[in-house]
UniProtKB/TrEMBL annotation, chain A:
InterPro entries on file: Radial_spoke (IPR006802), RSP9 (IPR055316)
Protein name from the UniProt record: Radial spoke head protein 9 homolog
Entry keyword annotation includes Protein biosynthesis: no
Database matches in Pfam families: Radial_spoke
Keywords, in A-Z order: Cell projection, Cilium, Cilium biogenesis/degradation, Cytoplasm, Cytoskeleton, Flagellum
Subcellular location as annotated: Cell projection, Kinocilium; Cytoplasm, Cytoskeleton, Flagellum axoneme
One GO term of the biological process aspect: axoneme assembly
Protein origin, superkingdom: Eukaryota
PANTHER family reported for this sequence: MITOCHONDRIAL RIBOSOMAL PROTEIN S18, RADIAL SPOKE HEAD PROTEIN 9 HOMOLOG
Originating species: Paramecium primaurelia
TrEMBL record, chain B:
Main location: cytoplasm
GO biological process terms on file: axoneme assembly; cilium movement involved in cell motility
Keyword Cytoplasm attributed: yes
PANTHER family: RADIAL SPOKE HEAD 6 HOMOLOG A, RADIAL SPOKEHEAD-RELATED
Subcellular location(s) per record: Cytoplasm, Cytoskeleton, Cilium axoneme
Polar residues: compositionally biased ranges: 408-417
Pfam families cross-referenced by the UniProt entry: Radial_spoke
Record key words, sorted: Cell projection, Cilium, Cytoplasm, Cytoskeleton
Residue span of region Disordered: 408-438
Matches recorded under InterPro entries: Radial_spoke
Name of protein: Radial spoke head protein
GO cellular component term, pick one: radial spoke
Length: 297, 438
C-alpha cells in the first residue's frame, strides 16, 4: 500500500472488515515518514498489520528497483509501538519446521522468547554449548586461511517468528495486476507508466493478476530471461498455486473495486480499482496460516 | 536517401520513417523527465494510438479509457440510497413504519477504533432498512459479514413478525421462536438487489452437531451442497445458520449487572430493575462482562428434549435429572473471565474524563472505546463507548483451532458376507400317483 494513499486504499481493506483507527493512521504516517528520511528506497510501502494479544505489529517494506537484476530488493521493517521502525532480523533457516507448527497468536512483544536455547534466566546453559556472554574462542583452520567463528546460539524470539511469517506471506501472496510492471532493456523492474488499469471485464478475472516475486515456475523463468521480455507483461508466476482454490476474487457492489483474497492467509488481500492505476496489496490479520484449507474446500 | 530507406520498412498503416517522426514529436510535446526509460513505452503507445505528428493539436490523450459504469448498477445504487419507495416510479408509495434498527453509521465510527472497517456501511444500512420494511422485522441489526470463496454474505439478525407456516417439525427440532431457532437470520450476497435477502431456515440439532465436527469455508451460494465427512445433511444455508447460531450463542456479552437471574428459575434472566449502563471505568476488565446467551448443549439444542413416551419405570423428573447430568447446563450469566484464553480486551481512543455540559460534575464523560475480541471465533468484536454497546462479526465463519484439523475418516465399508455354500436342492421324487391297491 502506497504510504501517501493509506486512507484511500483502506477502503479496499474494509471489504474484509479491517481498517486502521484514526490514532493508528496518524502515528503510522509519522513513523513511515521518519523511516523514509533515514533510509532511501525507490519505494516505501506499508505492508500491513499483524494483530497480537497485547500489541500489534506494523510492517513496512522498502523496495529498491535500480541496480537489481530482474527483481527489486525487498527490505522489511516492523514496529510494535508505532514510534520507530526497525529492521526485521534475517531469516534463520534452522527453525523453519518449528515455526510452521506455531499456531498461537502473536503477543505483540518482539522480545518474547519462543524457543529457548540458552536456558532460563539465571540458569547455567548446558556445559557443551558455548556461553553466549563469554567471548567466543576463535577457531583457526590449520592453514590459517579462513577464520571460523561460531556464532553464539540465540533464543528464538517472537520477532524471528514475525520475520518468517512476513517473508512467507510476501512470497506466497504478494500480487500485482498484469501490466503494472515491466522490464527495462537492462532487465531491471520498473513500474509501467503507461499502465491505465485493467478494464471492468479484465479486472474480475484472476488470470490478469500475477505474483510479485522472482518467478519460480520454469516457463516464467525462461520468459523473463529472454531479450524480448520487455515487451511482455506477464513474466511473473500466475496465481495458480496449490492448493487450488486458495484465491478468492471478489468485487464490491459497484463492481469496480476488486479484491483478491487469499484463504490460506486469511487477512491478505490484493486490490485494484478497475480503470485506474490504483493497485496494491496488504495484510491485516493475525499472522497464522490456515493449514486446514485443503479440508475446508 | 535515408528517408527512402526508412520508408521501405513498412507495416500496414505506416512505415518506419513516419513512426519515428510521430514518436519524436510526441516525446517533444510531452517532455517527460525520464524519456530514455520510457522510450519503448512511447513507441508502443504511439503505435497503438495512431498518433500522427501533423495533427498533433487535434490529438486528445484523454480519449484513451473512458470509465463506463454499468447503467443498471448506477440505477440500483441510487434507488437503494434514496428514500424507500415500495411502489413504482409512477406511483410512489411511502414506507410504513420500520422496526428498531440501530444506526450503523454511528456504530461504524466505533468499529473503526477497533480496527474493523465496515465496507459500504451506508448501503448496508439502507438495505437493512428496506429489509425491515418488506419483512416487517422487529429488532433488526446488522449481524456481520461472512466471507466466502466466490461471494460474501451480509447477515442481518432480527425477529420476523410475519407468520410463517413451518408445517410438521420432527420432535427434536426446536420450533421457530424457541431454542436455537429463536432469532431469524437473513443472508444477502448483493446489497443492490433488494430481493436478495433470504431468510435462513430452521436447523436441527443433528445439523448443529455435525457443524461442530467439520471445518468449511462457504462458497457464497446458499443452495450449494456441503460435501464433508461426517456428511452434513443440509445445504449451505443450513450450515450457515448453524454457524451463525453457534457464534451468537457463545459470544454475545453484556455488562455485568444488566440482567439478573430469575428467582426460582435459574435458567431464565430478566433485565435488572433500574439499571443504567455504567461508565467507561467500570467496564475496563474482562471481569465486568458476562455471557448473555445460553450455550448450546451437547445434544444440539438449548433445552433438553423430554420424549413424550418415557421408558418404563422412570418418573419424568428423575429422567430429566438423568439427562441433565449427562449433558449439563452451564450457568447463565457466567463471567467471561472464566473462559480461558478466549477473549482479548483493549482500550483505545481518547480516555480523558471530560466534564459534562450540565453542572453535575460527578458523571464525567469519557469517550474511550472498549474493544473485546473473541479469540475462539476470530472476527467477533464487541465495542462499547459512551453508552453505546454493539457487536459484529466479520470473518469466514469457522473457529480458531490450535491443532491441525483432521476430518473424521469415513467408516470402513464392510466387506460382504461370504455366500453360504450352496447345497443341491433336494430332489423329491415327483409325486407318483398312488397305484390303486389291489
Amino acid at each position: 500500500m502506497e504510504i501517501y494513499r493509506i486512507p484511500e486504499d483502506l477502503r479496499f481493506v474494509n471489504q474484509i472488515g479491517q481498517t486502521l483507527s484514526a490514532e493508528e493512521k496518524i502515528k503510522l504516517e509519522i513513523a513511515l515518514i521518519k523511516l523514509s528520511q533515514t533510509q532511501t528506497f525507490d519505494q516505501l510501502l506499508f505492508w500491513g498489520r499483524i494483530e497480537g494479544t497485547v500489541a500489534n505489529y506494523y510492517i513496512a517494506i522498502g523496495l529498491n528497483f535500480k541496480n537489481n537484476f530482474e527483481f527489486p530488493h525487498k527490505t522489511f521493517f516492523y514496529t510494535a509501538n508505532l514510534k520507530e521502525f526497525q529492521n526485521l532480523p534475517p531469516l534463520n533457516p534452522e527453525y523453519k519446521e518449528q515455526v510452521e507448527t506455531f499456531r498461537q497468536l502473536f503477543s505483540g512483544q518482539p522480545e518474547k522468547i519462543l524457543i529457548n536455547i540458552t536456558g532460563e534466566d539465571g540458569d547455567q546453559p548446558p556445559a557443551d554449548q558455548p556461553n553466549p556472554d563469554e567471548p567466543q574462542p576463535v577457531v583457526k583452520n590449520d592453514d590459517d586461511s579462513d577464520v571460523e567463528i561460531k556464532p553464539p546460539p540465540k533464543n528464538f524470539l517472537e520477532v524471528d517468528r514475525l520475520a518468517y511469517v512476513v517473508n512467507a506471506i510476501e512470497f506466497e501472496c504478494a500480487l500485482l495486476p498484469v501490466g503494472a510492471v515491466r522490464l527495462t532493456p537492462t532487465h531491471e523492474l520498473r513500474y509501467n507508466d503507461s499502465f491505465e488499469g485493467l478494464n471492468l471485464q479484465e479486472a474480475s478475472k484472476i488470470i490478469n493478476y500475477q505474483h510479485f516475486r522472482a518467478p519460480q515456475s520454469p516457463n516464467k523463468k525462461e520468459l523473463i530471461a529472454q531479450d524480448d521480455a520487455l515487451f511482455h507483461y506477464d513474466f511473473f508466476d500466475q496465481l495458480d498455486d496449490h492448493p487450488v482454490g486458495q484465491w478468492s476474487l471478489q468485487t464490491d457492489s459497484s463492481k469496480y473495486q476488486v479484491t483478491i483474497r487469499n484463504l490460506q492467509w486469511p487477512g491478505f488481500l490484493g486490490y485494484h480499482r478497475a480503470g485506474t492505476r490504483i493497485f496494491g496489496y496488504a495484510y491485516f490479520g493475525d499472522g497464522i496460516k490456515n493449514v486446514d484449507l485443503a479440508f475446508q474446500l | 536517401m535515408l528517408k527512402e530507406k526508412l520508408q521501405e520498412v513498412k507495416d500496414q498503416n505506416t512505415n518506419l520513417y513516419e513512426h519515428l517522426n510521430n514518436l519524436l514529436t510526441k516525446i517533444l510535446l510531452d517532455n517527460p523527465k525520464n524519456a530514455f526509460e520510457l522510450f519503448e513505452d512511447y513507441s508502443f503507445q504511439v503505435k497503438s494510438n495512431g498518433f500522427k505528428f501533423e495533427k498533433y493539436d487535434e490529438f486528445d490523450n484523454a480519449e484513451r479509457s473512458k470509465i463506463k459504469m454499468d447503467q443498471s448498477i448506477q440505477q440500483k445504487t441510487l434507488k437503494l440510497i434514496n428514500k424507500i419507495n415500495l411502489g413504482t416510479d409512477e406511483e410512489p408509495q411511502e414506507a410504513t413504519q420500520t422496526g428498531y434498527l440501530p444506526n450503523l453509521i454511528e456504530e461504524s465510527y466505533l468499529y473503526e477504533w477497533a480496527g474493523i472497517g465496515i465496507d459500504e456501511n451506508y448501503k448496508i444500512f439502507k438495505a437493512l432498512t428496506l429489509l425491515s420494511v418488506t419483512k416487517q422485522a422487529s429488532k433488526l441489526r446488522f449481524w456481520g459479514k461472512i466471507m466466502g470463496r466466490q461471494k460474501d454474505y451480509y447477515i442481518a439478525e432480527g425477529i420476523a413478525t410475519t407468520q410463517v407456516e413451518d408445517g410438521e417439525l420432527p420432535p427434536e427440532v426446536e420450533p421457530r421462536g424457541t431454542g436455537v431457532n429463536t432469532k431469524s437470520y437473513w443472508a444477502c450476497n448483493d446489497l443492490l438487489n433488494d430481493k436478495d435477502w433470504i431468510e435462513l431456515p430452521l436447523i436441527t440439532p443433528q445439523q448443529i452437531n455435525t457443524s461442530r465436527q467439520i471445518k468449511y469455508i462457504f462458497t457464497g451460494n446458499l443452495e450449494n451442497d456441503v460435501i464433508t465427512n461426517p456428511y452434513f445433511f443440509g445445504k449451505e444455508k443450513h450450515l450457515l445458520k448453524a454457524q451463525i447460531v453457534r457464534i451468537t450463542q457463545s459470544t454475545v456479552i453484556i455488562p455485568k449487572g444488566q440482567y439478573i437471574l430469575r428467582e426460582g428459575e435459574p435458567r431464565e434472566i430478566d433485565p435488572a430493575p433500574e439499571y443504567k449502563l455504567p461508565g467507561f471505568h467500570d467496564l475496563k476488565t474482562l471481569n465486568d462482562w458476562i455471557h448473555f446467551n445460553q450455550n448450546i448443549l451437547n445434544c444440539g439444542r438449548l433445552v433438553h428434549l423430554i420424549p413424550s413416551e418415557l421408558p418404563e419405570g422412570i418418573e419424568p423428573e428423575a429422567y430429566q435429572k438423568q439427562i441433565e447430568n449427562a449433558d449439563p447446563f452451564e450457568n447463565r450469566l457466567k463471567p467471561i473471565s472464566n473462559d480461558k484464553n478466549a477473549w482479548k480486551i483493549r482500550i483505545v481512543g481518547d480516555t480523558t474524563d471530560y466534564n459534562p455540559l450540565s453542572k453535575d460534575t460527578n458523571n464525567k464523560v469519557n469517550n474511550g472505546v472498549i474493544i473485546i475480541k473473541s479469540l475462539v471465533w476470530p472476527g467477533l468484536v464487541t465495542v462499547y463507548s459512551n453508552k453505546v454497546l454493539s457487536q459484529l462479526y466479520y470473518g469466514y465463519g469457522y473457529k480458531a483451532t490450535n491443532n491441525h484439523f483432521y476430518p473424521k475418516q469415513p467408516q470402513q465399508v464392510q466387506s460382504e458376507q461370504p455366500d453360504l455354500p450352496e447345497q443341491p436342492e433336494p430332489n423329491f421324487p415327483a409325486e407318483v400317483p398312488q397305484q390303486p391297491q389291489d
